[in-house]
Amino acid sequence: MTAATGPKSTANPAHLMLREVWSTGDIELIDELVADRHVHYDPLFDEPIAGASALKEWVGTVRTGSPTLTKSVRETYVDGNAVILTYTSTGTHDGEIMGIAPTGRSFELEGASVFRVDDGRLVETVDVWDTFGLFSQIGAFPEVV
């Protein structure tokens, strides 16, 4: 695997997904970045998020819960049509998400996304991130004494 960041890099749609879609909320960019057959796996769900419309809805839900969400890429690895980005997510829980009322608490957690790219578009995304860390930091779990 190699690091790649050039203008024609396979990593470009993956970087745009984190930098522009997740971090700024440019949901309409999803139509340009993902193929019709795109599937997105997230540790919160048993089934993948299939297609651009469902992904837009999920990103919108997350950004409603944390409008300040930022995903800062730390490392990029490319191997053929596979791209791995490691990142740090930061934000504040300022809105309801998944039935959890806003707490106003900030969070910082680590994650990685594995993307498969075909013809310049994302066809598969597998996210791995610290779900327990997020819910603990925003106060979604009762404190253990």
UniProtKB/TrEMBL annotation:
Pfam families: SnoaL (PF07366). This is Ketosteroid isomerase-like protein. It comes from the Archaea. Signal peptide: none annotated. It comes from Halovivax ruber (strain DSM 18193 / JCM 13892 / XH-70). One of its GO terms (biological process) is polyketide metabolic process. GO terms for molecular function: isomerase activity. Keywords: Isomerase.
